């Protein structure tokens, strides 16, 4: 990762299957200066994703699918341009409520998108709906409910991207998990 992190023009990084083998993926201070999109898919050994202060200052989108991050995701507050974290099929995270709190407190107002119901993405965590506690809604942005769906299912869906131009094909493949 050090070698990749030192590439000054790297803007998109997608790690799949055997591309990274290890339990902890830490984005170190000063690394990935121009990274804008990060995709993580099917990394069986990965249990923790960490962003240190001063890493990835341009990172706007993180998409995770088919990974169980049993130690969670930390340090998103160190990503000043973050716009979205999405958990696709099989993307599961410990301490999901804590991640939601970090996202809600972020100065750039990013969103946390979930493909399935919240319980399908949460590992060993008790969820308290933020709106019930604070009277305010969180930054979880669901897809609008289709006709006949309940409001509960509306609050937990994720719109998959329907990208039409070839320039954004990488984003489309991120959301196709």
What's the helical proportion of residues? 10-25%
Mean pLDDT: 76
The count of β-strands is 11
**What is the domain total for the residues?**
1
Q: What is the gyration radius calculated from CA atoms?
A: 16 Å
Order of helices and strands: HEEEEEEEEEHEEHHH
Taking pLDDT < 50 over at least 5 consecutive residues as the criterion, the unreliable ranges are: 125-176
Q: What is the 3D shape?
A: globular
Structural class: alpha/beta
Major β-sheet profile: 5 strands, parallel
Topology:
Blueprint: H1 2-5, E1 12-16, E2 24-27, E3 37-41, E4 48-51, E5 61-65, E6 67-69, E7 72-74, E8 84-87, E9 91-94, H2 96-105, E10 111-114, E11 122-123, H3 130-134, H4 151-154, H5 169-174
Describe this structure in words.
With about 180 residues, the protein is an alpha/beta fold. The protein has one domain (about 1-175). Helix content is about 15%, strand content about 25%. It has five helices and eleven strands; from the N terminus they run H-E-E-E-E-E-E-E-E-E-H-E-E-H-H-H. The strands form three sheets. It has a five-stranded parallel beta sheet. The radius of gyration is 16 Å and the shape is globular. Mean pLDDT is about 75; it is low at about 125-175.
């Amino acid at each position: 990762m050090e070698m990749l992190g030192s590439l000054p023009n790297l803007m998109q990084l997608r790690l799949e299957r055997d591309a990274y083998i290890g339990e902890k993926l830490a984005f170190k201070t000063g690394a990935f200066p121009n990274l804008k999109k990060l995709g993580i898919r099917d990394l069986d050994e990965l249990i923790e994703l960490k962003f240190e202060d001063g890493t990835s200052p341009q990172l706007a989108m993180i998409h995770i699918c088919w990974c169980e991050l049993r130690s969670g995701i930390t340090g998103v507050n160190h990503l000043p341009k973050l716009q979205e974290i999405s958990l696709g099929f099989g993307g599961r995270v410990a301490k999901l409520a804590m991640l939601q709190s970090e996202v809600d407190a972020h100065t750039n107002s990013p969103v946390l998108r979930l493909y399935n119901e919240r319980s399908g993405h949460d590992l060993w965590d008790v969820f308290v709906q933020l709106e019930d506690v604070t009277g305010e809604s969180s930054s979880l942005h669901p897809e609008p409910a289709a006709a006949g769906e309940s409001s509960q299912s509306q609050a937990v869906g994720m719109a998959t991207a329907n990208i039409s131009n070839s320039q954004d094909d990488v984003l489309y493949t991120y959301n196709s998990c």
